[in-house]
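We store chain and fold; thus.
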Amino acid sequence: MRAAIALATLIMTAPAMAADPITVPLGMADVPIHDSATGPDWSGFYAGVYGVGQLGGDAEAVGLGVSLGYNAALEFVLVGAEVSVQGLAVEGDTTAYGQLLGRAGVFVSDEVMVYAAGGYGLQLGTTAEDAFLLGGGVELALNDDVTLRGQYLRELPNNGGDAGNQFSLGANFHF
């Protein structure tokens, strides 16, 4: 009889040793999941226009430029290449200046990228002077198709002349 009572007690108290069931309260709002695809798509071709100023070096110049480039966005990093041509007013004369740049940047947010740039520049006027270019900039996406950017480049002439500084502000149109 004692064995039967012990067995009955064990059987009736076994559910008390089980864990509590997992329940989800009703009426809780779903937690939104961050969707990284909400920002603009930085990958692809773009064309841009910009104003430029060159200080130092052999002469000071101001002008306008156009650019064409391609970006590849990889997670939080961007790499790209760009070719541009500038029309410059230099000490009462005009000249053209071309440059080829590589860019590598990181995204500060979905809409803001900071980047380093390096490349080669060539004066296309009567005196063909060339220079290595090093610098960087910040680019801000207004929407999927338009970005604004500010850029600084240090010009290091290959002929041993004085180094110069190039500042530009402009807009890129992505397609």
